[in-house]
Specification:
With about 120 residues, the protein is of the alpha/beta class. It has one domain: 2,3-Dihydroxybiphenyl 1,2-Dioxygenase, domain 1 (Roll), CATH 3.10.180.10. Helices cover about 15% and strands about 40% of the residues. The protein is built from 2 helices and 8 strands, in the order βαββββαβββ. The strands form 2 sheets. Strands 1-4-3-2 form a 4-stranded mixed sheet, with helices on one face. Strand 7 and strand 8 form a beta hairpin. It is globular and about 50 Å long.
């Protein structure tokens, strides 16, 4: 058995607003949405898929925290700052061998975004 991928499911308070944030601010593409009106959708970027749900009975919105490993972190961070994204945790080199920062989506779900520091295991 081999685990091929992981796709976090984040509860949101406003699906349309969340899709807009992930697409136009973070650079994801809308992969699919379901329901009329839509109450669940997925956004993708590179090899990552994140499902967003605004369903009755779903876990509380804003209760999740996801860590995204990236390359080109400084350029991506600069782009997000330019787009007005508030930093929950500022960018910095961490003792655990990562350069990372943390933001929150419109529902309060937190996304840590990090890159392995060169020469670290």
């Amino acid at each position: 058995m081999k685990i091929e991928s992981v796709s976090p499911i984040l509860s949101v308070t406003d699906l349309a607003r969340s899709i807009d944030f992930y697409r136009h601010v973070l650079g994801f593409e809308l992969a699919w949405s379901w329901g009329e009106p839509s109450d669940i959708a997925a956004v993708c970027r590179d090899n990552v898929e994140i499902t967003l749900t605004q369903r009755t009975g779903a876990k509380p919105a804003g209760a999740s925290h996801v860590y995204l490993g990236v390359s080109g972190i400084d350029d991506y961070h600069a782009t997000l700052v330019e787009r007005g994204v508030a930093m929950v945790v500022p960018i910095g080199d961490r003792p655990y061998g990562m350069r990372d920062f943390r933001i929150a989506d419109p529902s309060g779900n937190e996304l840590s975004i990090g890159q392995v520091i060169a020469g670290k295991d």
